[in-house]
Specification:
heterodimer; A: alpha+beta; 2 domains; nine-stranded antiparallel beta sheet; four-stranded antiparallel beta sheet; 30% strand; B: alpha+beta; Alpha-Beta Plaits; two-stranded antiparallel sheet; 3 helices; 8 strands
């Protein structure tokens, strides 16, 4: 059995496509068998809703009279600095940017209550944001100061552009030291007091297409409540990570760079987020449709939480010192049971990524496709796979002269 | 009938130096467990306690506290979840010393049981979207 994306789109347009979520497909295949499920199902939808730091938005502010060239100057949006090293009125606001006068970790652990991610959430909610800019002034852009309000209606383009999202698998973080630590994986209690994980597991997009057979550049996706696209492989994309026989990576592996129109998005799916003692970021909702082109692509979507193993890493030593040490491998089924056992010790677990959010995203995407509001796109090129030989490089320092 | 309730006492400046807690034991036969206290001479103060005893003694005790000039709130209103901000990730679950957060086995939504909350505030800053709010 085989079908093309064009054939699936014809069925979507007629309202006849059979669409199920990556959770539902597991039961269907169990009941009907893989071959029958593959014949019947056209699309499997996935979802994930977790903190993703390599996110941000670029905007074109529009030209004032007289003109100002903020490029090379400084721009603040609600006191959060935006990147201006581009053309006159284009700016990029990163999710982890924080105010210049934030006490950061000088008052430890820092609260990081407001950052770039929170500004993005407020923009998407339709709120006005305070723009303060200074520039050096040129003959064609004479103005040196600007203070005004902007919102998503006043700017020209506003585009969410995330360099690394939807990590295919991730570390489980613990703390083997004697004192509490504050990390990007949350607050970790001493002596293996808790374990935090961050993946939607069996619903996670790249876990359902582990070898990148359908997801590629140009794949249309659910992004932040609107539609977006896969722009490229994400930074740190590491197809060479160790994998199980079924191709499921047992370490952080593939990633996605995604892009989409911020003006379509919703604050429900782009949430400003704070990690105590670490920093500010944004929680992003992403859903990727997997076209069932053949039995093999369906087979990959049958992955369950029990099939996916994640490494337990000590964030008091191994992680900060970049040691390869892994304390144990545990499955997402174990992680979701509420406790794992590492070195004979039972450790309570918690998730940083929202599973109910992932379920809702996969369901929304399913509804969009079923009612013909979302067509699948043919990827222009697939993501680099195992055969690309791409490996994650570390930075080994060399002395400067 | 026995009752046990968690309450928040707000001490106005003039009542800070009154030995109200010892009166509750001595004159009304009530038991208490102080969960949190911040009271300094000459300033307004705050005390969170669980007060238990016979209903009639409890009612008399509360009346006494009001007469002394204390403002009394039920504790369950104090740490409040902002339902709009909560993403149901679950980061709070292992932070809470009294297991006030649990996962709904079916939906995996995070449930918050106010009656178990002792207002330690550990969840407030550990919540990534900062959905747990302290309301006075």
């Amino acid at each position: 059995m085989a079908r093309t994306i064009a054939e699936i789109n014809e069925k979507i347009k007629k309202g006849q496509a059979v669409v199920v979520t990556a959770e539902e497909v597991i039961e269907i295949a169990k009941k009907k068998g893989v071959a029958a499920a593959a014949r019947e199902i056209d699309v499997v939808t996935t979802g994930t809703f977790g903190p993703m730091c390599s996110s941000g938005a670029y905007m074109n502010l529009g030209h004032t009279s007289p003109r100002i060239k903020v490029g090379g100057g400084r721009v603040y949006l609600n006191d959060i600095p935006a990147y201006t090293g581009i053309a006159a009125v284009d700016v990029f606001l990163g999710a982890t940017a924080i105010p210049d006068d934030d006490p950061k970790n000088r008052i430890y652990p820092g609260e990081f209550k407001y950052g770039g991610g929170h500004v993005i959430e407020e923009l998407v909610a339709g709120k006005d944001v305070r723009l303060v800019a200074t520039a050096y002034g040129t003959d064609c852009y004479p103005r040196k100061k600007l203070e005004t309000w902007i919102n998503l209606n006043t700017v020209n383009e506003a585009v969410l552009f995330n360099m690394r999202n939807a990590y295919q698998n991730y570390n489980v973080a613990v703390n083997a030291s004697e004192k509490i630590i504050y990390t990007y994986m949350g607050v970790l209690k001493p002596r293996l007091g808790n374990a935090n994980f961050c993946s939607a597991g069996q619903l996670s997009p790249l876990m359902n297409d582990p070898l990148y057979r359908t997801i590629g550049i140009g794949t249309r996706i659910f992004l932040g409540g609107g539609t977006g696209y896969v722009a490229w492989q994400g930074t740190q994309h590491n197809p060479s990570a160790p994998r199980t026989e079924k191709g499921v990576p047992t370490r952080g592996a593939g990633t996605l760079a995604v892009i989409g129109d911020l003006k379509q998005m919703k604050p429900r799916w782009l949430v400003g987020t704070s990690f105590l003692g670490y920093g500010a970021t944004i929680t992003v909702g992403i859903g990727v449709p997997i076209p069932i082109l053949n039995e093999e692509t369906l087979q990959y979507t049958l992955v369950t939480d029990a099939d996916i193993l994640a490494p337990v890493v000590d964030y008091s030593d191994a992680y900060p010192q970049r040691k390869a040490d892994v304390l144990a491998e545990v499955s997402y089924a174990e992680l979701k049971s509420g406790k794992i056992t590492v070195k004979g010790k039972e450790i309570p677990t918690a998730s940083l990524s929202s599973y109910p959010g992932a379920v809702e995203i996969a369901s929304i995407l399913k509804d969009w496709i079923k009612k013909g509001a979302f067509l699948l796109s043919e990827p222009v090129a697939l993501l680099p796979g195992v055969e690309s030989g791409i490996k994650l490089k570390a930075l080994d320092e060399r002395p400067l002269p | 009938m026995k009752v046990a309730k968690k309450i928040v006492l707000h001490f106005p400046q003039k009542a800070v130096d009154k030995p109200v807690v010892s009166s509750l034991i001595r004159d009304f036969g009530l038991d208490f467990n102080i969960l949190k206290a911040s009271i300094s001479p000459g300033e307004e103060g705050l005390m969170v306690m669980e007060l238990s005893g016979e209903q009639k003694d409890y009612d008399r005790g509360i009346r006494y506290l009001q007469e002394v000039g204390l403002e009394i709130q039920s504790l369950s209103q104090d740490v409040v979840r902002n339902e709009e901000r909560c993403t149901h990730c679950g980061a709070c679950i292992t932070m809470c010393p009294t297991c006030a957060f649990t996962l709904d086995a079916k939906t995996r939504n995070v449930l918050f049981d106010n009656s178990k909350c002792i207002v330690c505030e550990l969840c407030v800053r550990a919540c990534p979207p900062r959905a747990m709010e302290l309301h006075f």
